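Technical annex, item 7. During the second reporting period the consortium partners agreed on a shared format for inverse folding records so that results from different sites could be compared directly. Each record opens with the tokenized structure and is followed by the designed sequence. A conforming record, contributed by the partner at site C, is shown below for reference.
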């Protein structure tokens, strides 16, 4: 469905947030395939959902899912990556807050997402209209 929706965001910063989410997915998809052997094909799902008050950018993958409690994910220096610094989602969260948005870690049933992504990580960037 085509929309003429416009939201007021810091384009370059939000691009960085989306790139970070995709980069995280790529890393954990490789872990799921090579180490855990839990998937055959690495897949990323991206969608934009418009509600009455917000615009949601959803990024999901069919990888390991989150290995940390979702409350910890945006804390600085907290990571499950072997060589990570634990700053990516923290900085992403700060950027979202600066744009009056938020980063969310929804349940699978909160959005229409294909079943093959049920066990993976799901992140929603929520922007006010």
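Designed sequence (site C submission):
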């Amino acid at each position: 469905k085509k929309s003429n929706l416009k939201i007021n965001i810091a384009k370059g910063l939000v691009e960085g947030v989306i790139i970070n989410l995709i980069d995280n997915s790529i890393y954990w998809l490789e872990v799921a395939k090579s180490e855990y052997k839990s998937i055959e094909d690495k897949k990323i799902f991206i969608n934009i959902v418009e509600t009455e008050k917000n615009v949601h950018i959803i990024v999901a993958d069919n990888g390991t899912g989150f290995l940390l409690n979702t409350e910890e994910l945006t804390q600085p220096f907290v990571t499950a990556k072997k060589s990570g610094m634990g700053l990516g989602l923290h900085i992403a969260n700060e950027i979202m807050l600066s744009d009056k948005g938020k980063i969310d870690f929804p349940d699978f049933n909160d959005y229409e997402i294909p079943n093959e992504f049920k066990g993976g990580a799901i992140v929603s960037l929520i922007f006010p209209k």
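The chain has a mean pLDDT of 94. Helices lie at 11-35, 88-98. All partners now use this format for quarterly exchanges.
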